[in-house]
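User: Sequence for 2-dehydropantoate 2-reductase N-terminal domain-containing protein below. Tokens please.
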Amino acid sequence: MKIAIIGATGKGLTVAAYLQKIYPDVTILDVPMEPLEQIQSRGVTIYSSTTFLTNFVVKPIEACASDYDFVFLFAHPFYNKNILPILKSTLQQRCFIVSFQENLSDWELIQSFQNFPVLSAVCKFETYVKQHHQVVVTSPHTSLNQVAFDLYDSHPSYFYYAEEVKSVLDTIGCTQIVRTAFDIKWTQAIFSGAIDRLASALNCLYGDILHHPIALQSSIHLVDEIVRIAKKYNITLAKTSELDYAALIIDSDTKKTEMMPIIEKLLLPYQKIPSNQDAYLIDELLEVATLVDQPTPYLETLAHCLHEKNEEDFHRNIACFQPLVTGTLWRQE
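Assistant: Structure tokens for 2-dehydropantoate 2-reductase N-terminal domain-containing protein:
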């Protein structure tokens, strides 16, 4: 069995390392060359319940083979403009394409590969990349035995597609086939996108939000507004084994204190990551926010920093959020 992992991300490398224990023919492909060069020379070290080193065949995306049985897509959606045309022109047989990309939906991918079985998936564990060749799995290893992956098939009449992919992913951890709307992908994308834009607005790393009290409180209020908007428009937010996203709403002063360690936990795996996502996620959310009855001061301040003050430094921009944080801590429904 031939497996391609596209995207040398933390989760992509972790999945590749565990799969290679069972399936020896695993290849890492990506668009940026720097991580591939380090992986080629040093292998990949996974730090989990145990630490182990794995060596991979690595190739640029242009060297994609035509006879893979499974293609697992982890690369940032930004690179789809480079990746998808190559896959469309190269893949000859009807291999399984499984998207782990953190985007709002995989509709673009499904439309591009109508003759291929395309499935959506989400990793339920968290990782972060210490260096290009070192990955830390921050979730407890026991959580993999509970639910390691959510898997959704947009071809419900061909139920065996999902079962076949599940049989591969189950070698890593428990895979749950989701039969309902794939709300987990939407939820994770909108929350991570909002926090990313906060980092961009402040010209800082995720870790700066984590360690700066005003920035951290701002992220809590930002999350609160996302949940309120979702509630207003009956948008279903995910409930995982660890977290009910719909409960991240400030309905009392004590609730804000309770949310602090939750937001810290969400940010911790990404604390060394610079902001690099496109602004479209938060911009789309702002369009919805203008229709909501109540004001959305954090989203408005965020948009102001992004579009009007994006050249200023962290300390100057954080001052924009100071009055909001020191004002009313919660709003009535």
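The longest strand covers residues 118-123.
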